[in-house]
Amino acid sequence: MNRPLVISDCDEVLLHMVAPYSDWLGEQHGITFSMQDHDFSQAMRYVHDGSVVEPKDIWRLLGLFFDNEMHRQMPIAGAVEGINALAEHAEVVILTNLNDDRREARTRQLENVGIHARVFTNTGPKGPALKAILEEYKPSRAVFIDDLPQHHGSVADLTPHVARLHLCGEPMIARHIACAHQAGHAHARIDEWTAALPWLMAQVNGAKVDG
Q1: Same domain, 68 and 102
Q2: Tens of pLDDT, residues 5-31
Q3: In terms of CB atoms within 10 Å, which of 25, 26, 131, 201 comes out highest?
Q4: Distance (Å) of CA 98 to CA 67, 103, 123, 174, 197
Q5: Pairwise pLDDT comparison (211 vs 116), residue with the higher score
Q6: Any idea what DSSP says for residue 77?
Q7: CB neighbours of 182 closer than 8 A, spacing ≥ 6?
Q8: Does residue 141 lie in a domain region?
Q9: What's the average model confidence in pLDDT over 108-128?
């Protein structure tokens, strides 16, 4: 029988993204980042007049950040220790929504903080990509970790047998993100690795989940 498989997101699960992104926007572009609700598109405003950054510029700035500033991203508390503890009992892969040409940079970035895992890049919903990973690895059981509820919904639709943990380790945005557990798309919502690790380890070791 093949080993269990953990499929983890990266940004806001393993590494902080919004916090260093916010710092960089202020330092280099005269933009503040402040989420008042779940609407990311309203969070970025120019300091000089308070106007909202246009969607095309949001995507351009995100691209610049991931091309040039990934070194700013530091680990979420407990994430490196937690994912490496899981790797002693399961295969671990990373499923991150970045363009394919950033896969190597993401792999190196994770290696630099002590996480050595195969990286899969993706755009759009993660359900199809995760299903393809399962078809390749054929694990005895699988666990999915992500900070965004829409990805849990996508995975739940295509591979409902996968245990799903909604984890957002960035306090700046966690309270604004709709809970995939409450929506019925994740089996649990735990935003701190110290509390999440026992739950994850139980799933890796064969605990049953509802749903």
Answers
A1: no
A2: 999 999 999 999 999 999 999 999 999
A3: 25
A4: 11, 7, 6, 21, 26
A5: 116
A6: T
A7: 189
A8: yes
A9: 98
